Amino acid sequence: MTVIGVGLLGASLAKACKEQGLANEILGYGRNRENLEKARTLKIIDYYSTDLSEAVKNADLIVLCTPVSAIAPLIQNMIADIRPGTLITDVGSVKDPIVREVEKLIPEGIYFIGSHPIAGGENSGLEASAANLYEGAQCIVTPTSKTDKKALDKISALWRAVGMDVTSLSPDEHDFIFGAVSHLPHIVAYALMNTLGALRTQNDHEVITFSGAGLKDITRIASSNPVMWRDICLSNRDHSLDLIDRFLVKLNEIRSIIEKGDGQGLENKFIAANKYRLKVI
Question: Above 70 in pLDDT, residue 67?
Fold first, then answer.
């Protein structure tokens, strides 16, 4: 098994696979030799390589744990060195453009299954990895009409073996759903912080210094990695734009109600939101 990218998700998967006896040997690939050496010292991986061809040539399973923008280019660069029968999957949170691009690259006899394990936390990197990171979490697999059924079953079994509940969605449906419940909230949180962060009073007080726990709660995700979320939002551009437009409609509805001084209308909007909120707690 080769793990491409030995950070939070890659190292946690390696730990879980070792704990469950799912791989005889685990090889890690990355550009940071110091990080890879640390992973080997900690026995998270057995070997490592900074040469992509060497890293994949003997693998039965390759898992790409990299930013979404790197997945298809990495597969393109490694495909000539992958032996027939190899399974490839990823952990990217955008699926449709990746799956479409990779299916053009993959020759017959090599199998790609798009995966999105919904796991992680505020901390990132090798140091934050844990063998139980995936336990009890959900994983989405995204087969298409071209997907090999046996390969899909094997990748689904991998995620179940590390403790995940596996659901199958089409790549586009996946991107619509997670564009709504994950990508849009990040966009809103970033926009809200940029709005508030720039505000000062007439007496030059920085508004944001007066914030309390509520603002910290709803903007926690604005601390997420900007480069990662740049790639996610651009990779899921069509759904991102559509969902921003839908959000603006709802925001403008509330603005209009406030402008009219319609107390009951505003209360009704807030009551509806309270009811929807109950579905996520």
Answer: yes
Please count the structural domains in the chain.
Answer: 2
Digit-coded pLDDT (tens) for 152-175: 999 999 999 999 999 999 999 999
Band (123; pLDDT cuts 50, 70, 90): confident
Q: Say if residue 136 is in the same domain as residue 17.
A: yes
Domain end: 132, 147, 169, which one?
A: 169
**Do residue 159 and residue 220 come from a single domain?**
no
pTM exceeding the 0.90 threshold for the entire prediction: yes
**Structural domain of residue 133, as residue ranges?**
2-169
Same domain, 187 and 161: no
User: What DSSP letter does each residue of the chain carry, written as one string?
Assistant: -EEE--SHHHHHHHHHHHHHT--S--EEE-S-HHHHHHHHHTTS-SEEES-HHHHHTT-SEEEE-S-HHHHHHHHHHHGGGPPTT-EEEE--S--HHHHHHHHHHPPTT-EEE-EEEE---S--SGGG--TTTTTT-EEEE---TT--HHHHHHHHHHHHHTT-EEEE--HHHHHHHHIIIIIHHHHHHHHHHHHHHT-B-TT--BGGGG--HHHHHHTGGGGS-HHHHHHHHHHTHHHHHHHHHHHHHHHHHHHHHHHHT-HHHHHHHHHHHHHHHGGG-
